[in-house]
Write a structure and sequence with these properties.
With 615 residues, this protein is α+β, with helices and mostly antiparallel strands. It is built from 18 helices and 21 strands. Strands 6, 7, 8, 11, 12, 13, 14, 15, 18, 19, 20 and 21 form a twelve-stranded mixed beta sheet that branches. The chain has a five-stranded antiparallel beta sheet with strand order 4-3-2-1-5, with no helix packed on it. A two-stranded antiparallel ribbon has the order 9-10. InterPro entries: SAC_dom. GO terms for molecular function: phosphatidylinositol-4-phosphate phosphatase activity.
């Protein structure tokens, strides 16, 4: 694998953006520079270190190029401004992106007293461009990005070593798994111009590298979670599967253990229930689940009007066929409630898997987490782990001794796919329990711990638990906008009232973000990943405020005034008879209640929905 330019001098003048490679590890020479012409937008590479005719407006050190975002009014070069070192894995450094920045490619010129770009724009177009830039900022700042300049962080170890990809002298951007290559769209122009050494593939998710001391021995523990960019977005705007079988919140989580030249890897996956369903934000705490299960439904028919032999399970079949090709046999564990609206979704999921796949390809297991773990008894999740024991034993895990080419790697032959309704809190509890069992097996194989002991018997178990709780928070921040729920159990092994209070606060915060922030966040991800129609007339729909009717605009104000009037009547209106006060309070409450009922019934209009037109 060839290395990338991970450190460079970044200079900007009126006419040029010049990036000079500084690191000596890269497959380019130390005199290589990347040029972007600010007049034409042309990008190219030269084996020279130029002396600029003008003094640079910007002259700083950067840590990698992310790509170029094409907006209607300009192009923006995005780069890594600050980074945080996470750890070293198999002699490869891994970093977290601490801060990104960008600069307009088209230069700014003086035109009288005004400063404009080389392309003339009107006020409306400029406002639209500013809105898109703010969305770009939101996507880049809210997503946890990680990268390695010399290692294929987008691929799991089994794929790398079993197919000998690691021996190929190919650029990382050409061997990356596009499911997890978040800046592929941004980097397309660089890739098309064969500027491979300047393309830094980013994954979104979580990476942690730690040393685990176990008696007199030390192993290195790495946890990597890769969030898929194929169907990205926050939870109430991104549910279920699309027509191609790509599901929301699909995450590949890899647990890696290294001890000298011994390398172990175990992978679990999670993803939304792979049927077509949605929960549109509407100011209710739990919006109603709507399932596209029949061709008679207008939405379903509109989506697939040109497709013959449409089945409610078509996307489910496509999803599991893709997983079978990529991973092998699956155990699909569903932790959703087996009553209420979740049960309807679960029944469809169960019938779809059992009707279309034999159990040795997809083995469906329904386990009502809330029923079995009622009363804060989360330890009962180990009953489910015991139920999965035979599958985990037959699936195994990846193992290879580095440097021993005569040894055939031990492969992981199957995978556990876990979901709850969000694929967050309940899923995190089960995945951490499975990871604990597998880690114990691997340490026993290395004879670091005896057959009678488990990782729980060592002080380092607290570090293991905290890593998994931090991992849960990271995935939840991406999908739900807050840290995960139930992480007090993951950290300490028991549920606490303090943890319940924290969960209550996070639930309220989720409610606010789901209704009034996530619509913008969905637009931001669609923009970042190249799913927005960049036609100047179709890029955005009317603003949030302009889409409300006059009645919808005024009713919230009437509600507020009625509530204040009620409070005034209770606490300050004391110079009149009690009958008048009661009548005043009742009338105010009646107006408030009617207004609130109107707001709730029109909740989808008040909740912020995505505005950008997608392709």
């Amino acid at each position: 694998m060839s290395s990338l330019v991970e450190r460079a001098r970044f200079r900007v003048t009126d006419d040029w953006i010049v990036v000079d490679a500084l690191n000596t590890k890269a497959s380019v020479t130390s005199h290589t520079s990347l040029f972007l012409c600010r007049k034409t937008g042309r990008v190219f590479e030269r084996q020279e270190r130029p002396a600029l005719e003008q003094s640079p407006q910007v002259d700083r050190i950067i840590f990698g190029i992310v790509g170029i975002m094409q907006l209607p009014d300009n192009e923006y070069l995005i780069y890594i401004k600050e980074r945080e070192w996470i750890g070293n894995f198999l002699q490869h450094d891994i970093y977290k992106v601490a801060q990104m920045d960008w600069i307009p490619v088209k230069r700014v010129v003086e035109n009288g007293a005004k400063r404009t770009t080389t392309t003339t724009t009107n006020t409306t177009s400029s406002m639209k461009n500013n809105y898109l830039v703010s969305l770009l900022s939101l996507a880049l700042s809210e997503t946890p990005f990680y990268y390695s300049p010399s290692f294929m962080l987008t691929r799991r170890l089994q794929t790398i070593y079993s197919s000998n990809i690691h021996q190929l002298v190919k650029p990382l951007c050409l061997t990356a798994d596009k499911r997890f290559f978040w800046n592929y769209y941004l980097a397309k122009s660089l890739i098309e111009n064969k500027l491979y050494s300047w393309v830094m593939p980013l994954i979104a998710g979580f990476v942690r590298c730690e040393l685990f001391p176990l008696d007199s021995k030390v192993v290195r523990y790495i946890l990597i979670s890769r969030i898929s960019c194929e169907r990205a977005g926050p939870r109430y705007h991104c549910r279920g599967s699309d027509w191609e079988g790509k599901v929301a919140n699909f995450v590949e989580t890899e647990q890696i253990v290294t001890y000298y030249d011994h390398v172990f890897s175990f992978v679990q996956i999670r993803g939304s229930i792979p049927v077509m369903w949605k929960q549109t934000p509407n100011l209710k705490y739990k919006p109603k689940i709507k399932i596209y299960s029949s061709k008679t439904q207008p939405e379903f028919a509109a989506l697939h009007s040109k497709t013959e032999n449409v089945s409610p399970f078509t996307c489910l079949v496509r999803h599991f066929e893709q997983l079978k090709d990529c991973y092998g046999p699956q155990v699909a564990v569903s932790l959703i409630d087996q009553k209420g609206s979740e049960a309807t979704l679960g029944d469809l999921y169960q019938s779809g898997t059992r009707e279309n796949f034999p159990s040795n390809v997809v083995d469906y297991i329904a386990w009502d987490f809330h029923r079995y773990c009622k009363g804060m008894r989360f330890d009962r999740v180990y009953q489910l782990v015991q139920q999965l024991e035979s599958s985990l034993e037959s699936f195994g895990y990846f193992y290879k001794k580095l440097g021993d080419d005569s040894m055939t790697p031990q492969l992981q032959k199957g995978y556990v796919r876990t979901n709850c309704i969000d694929c967050l809190d309940r899923t995190n509890v089960l995945q951490s329990a499975i990871a604990e069992v597998i880690l114990t097996k691997q340490l026993r194989q290395l004879e670091i711990i005896s057959q009678e002991k488990s990782i729980k018997d060592f002080a380092v178990y607290a570090k293991f638990s905290n890593i998994w709780a931090d991992h849960a928070d990271a995935i939840s921040e991406y999908y739900a906008g807050t840290g995960a729920l139930k992480t007090d159990y993951t950290r300490t092994g028991k549920r606490s009232y303090r943890g319940i209070a924290v969960d209550g606060w996070r639930s309220m915060l989720r409610y606010w973000k789901n209704n009034f922030v996530d619509g913008y966040k969905q637009d931001a991800y669609n923009l970042l990943l190249g799913k927005v129609q960049m036609n100047a007339d179709k890029t955005t729909t009317p603003s949030y405020w302009s889409q409300l009717s006059w009645k919808e605009k005024w009713i919230p104000l009437v509600c507020l005034m009625a509530l204040l009037s009620c409070v005034w009547g209770v606490f300050w209106l004391r110079d009149v008879s009690w009958k008048y006060r009661v009548a005043h309070v009742v009338a105010s409450l009646s107006i408030f209640w009617r207004g609130l009922s109107f707001i709730i019934s029109h909740g989808e209009h008040y909740a912020v929905q995505p505005r950008l037109s997608t392709s």
